[in-house]
Amino acid sequence: MKKIVTLCILITTVITYAQDNLAQNTIKGVLAGNQGQVIQLAEAFSEEQYDWRPAEGVNSVGEALLHVAGGNYYLAMKMGFPPPEDVDMMNLGKISGKENIIATLKKSNEFVLEKIMEVKTEDLTTEVDFGFAKMNKMGGLLAMMEHNGEHKGQLIAYARSNGVVPPWSK
Cys-Cys crosslink for 167: which of 8, 40, 100, 140, Cβ 3.0 to 4.6 Å? Predict the structure, then answer.
């Protein structure tokens, strides 16, 4: 009987926590899906294709991936979560090589997924100046999700232009 009561308390706690963090959990789930597909695309490009760009003055494949990583850190930083000490935001764009770029992107992805869950539900309405717009923290979380999705679309176009088929659509 004690085991059943303990199990019921545990289940109730988990359900209550999930409901208290419904927005964070939902955004985290969608963002993790986008991030996973961006990583799949990053891995599908060849090392040589990382320098490809559709036109002069437009981000290359590698630059677009690093831009996503930088955006992750920037948006989190504006919400009160500074990047890890070993992340040099001023030189993030100088990282080169497919493996290094993918590692940088994965690290930024893990960082923001962790930080999303640290945003308290009662703080979702707190206003933040992101530099490009003033919005609440909920808007910041949605901007993270949207930014990753936007660049997933960009990278799909880059992939198709280079004969790379997005792995999930084969």
Answer: 40
What span, in angstroms and rounded, lies between the C-alpha atoms of 1 and 9?
12
142 near 46, Cβ under 8 Å? no
pLDDT in tens, 109-162: 999 999 999 999 999 999 999 999 999 999 999 999 999 999 999 999 999 999
How many Cα atoms within 13 Å fall on the side-chain side of residue 145? 18
**Structure token digits, residue 91:** 């030189």
Query: Could you report how far apart the first and last alpha carbons of the chain are, in Å?
Result: 51
3-state DSSP helix/strand/coil % of the chain, to nearest 5: 70, 5, 25
Contact 72, 111 (CB under 8 A): yes
Residue 72, by phi and psi: left (phi above 0), alpha (psi -120 to 50) or beta? alpha
Whole-structure pTM over 0.85, yes or no? Answer: yes
